[in-house]
């Protein structure tokens, strides 16, 4: 069952939580941005395989977490990339399907953070353990906050090889991003 919210004005956590809490027969929920092309012919198979190994999967992530880390791939507020040995996964970028691939590191790999461009999980695990997205983080930091909540409960995050092309490279360092960064750091005391 597909449910698409294209160019929505609601924060992503509101939409995602609605689907986690919905009474339906869905086994796996997939949260993906609306500016993605699914380039993988075996998309569903890869999601099922990944969700058998990890509690939450993504396509790119970081194996470690640092104090004041502002995004999954960066180690400081100057947006310095983390060392490649800590990064995992790959994703294409471009204005058309099958764009040029950015390779960050081997996948599958267990991670501390996953990029929110794509996340998938067994719905029952999220629902039964009250693992929801915090509505405070409408479009920024919802993924990092969610990953920390997942890890705090002892669940496993991991990257999985799924072919996607993303039209955007993110909106770091904008005013809305900066505001959510302050709230994220206050919540997690980092």
Topology overview:
Layout (H helix, E strand, L loop, with lengths): L11 H10 L6 E5 L3 E3 L4 H11 L2 E3 L1 E3 L24 E7 L7 E5 L3 E3 L1 E2 L3 E5 H6 L13 H11 L4 E3 L4 E3 L8 H14 L2
How would you sum up this structure, described in words?
This protein is of the alpha+beta class. The chain has a single domain (28-188), classed as Spore Coat Polysaccharide Biosynthesis Protein SpsA, Chain A (Alpha-Beta Complex), CATH 3.90.550.10. Helices cover 27% and strands 22% of the residues. It has helices at residues 12-21, 43-53, 123-128, 142-152, 175-188; strands spanning 28-32, 36-38, 56-58, 60-62, 87-93, 101-105, 109-111, 113-114, 118-122, 157-159, 164-166. The termini are far apart. 35% of the residues are buried.
């Amino acid at each position: 069952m597909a449910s698409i919210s294209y160019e929505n004005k609601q924060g992503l956590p509101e939409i995602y939580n609605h689907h986690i809490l919905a009474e339906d027969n869905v086994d796996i929920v997939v949260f993906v941005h609306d500016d993605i092309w699914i380039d993988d012919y075996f998309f569903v198979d890869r999601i099922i395989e990944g969700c058998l190994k990890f509690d939450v999967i993504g396509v790119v992530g970081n194996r470690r977490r640092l104090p004041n880390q502002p995004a999954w791939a960066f180690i400081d507020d100057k947006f310095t990339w983390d060392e490649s040995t800590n990064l995992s996964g790959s994703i294409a970028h471009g204005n058309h399907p099958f764009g040029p691939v950015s390779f960050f590191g081997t996948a599958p790999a267990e991670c501390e953070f996953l990029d929110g461009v794509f996340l998938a999980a067994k719905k029952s695990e999220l629902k039964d353990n009250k693992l929801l997205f915090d509505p405070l983080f409408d479009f920024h930091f919802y993924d990092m906050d969610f990953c920390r909540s997942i890890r705090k409960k002892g669940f496993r995050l991991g990257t999985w090889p799924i072919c996607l092309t993303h039209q955007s490279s993110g909106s770091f360092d904008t005013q809305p991003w900066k505001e959510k960064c302050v709230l994220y750091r206050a919540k997690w005391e980092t």
